[in-house]
Amino acid sequence: MSKTPQLEIPTDMRKMTEQSLEQVRTAINGYLQFFQRAVPGNVMGGSELSNKILGYAERNIASAFEFAQKLVQVRDIQDLPRLQTEFVQAQMQAMTEQAKDLSETATKAVTDSAKITTKGGLSS
Description:
Distance between the termini: 84 Å
Oligomer: single chain
Strand content: under 5%
């Protein structure tokens, strides 16, 4: 019988990888906070759309880091394809839902903006 190959990542390398992941996470969180402060609420169809975009970006980044953390912890090489498949499927589902929600929110923002312009009348 063949035994499943075990994936042994040296402890030092695992720690270094985890530290690097944490540094990247900190940098990305700083960038997202900067983006949140720098983008006014009336850009891209209003604050609701901007908040959703930022929220989805944060969730997607968190999912990617969770996936990376799982990869660092893998002991059995056969877990790699399973983890990859689960991650890709979850991300595709999330992206589909996010695209639908963002589309609906943008459409609503445009419709609301058109209603305000129509009520206010056009000035020459």
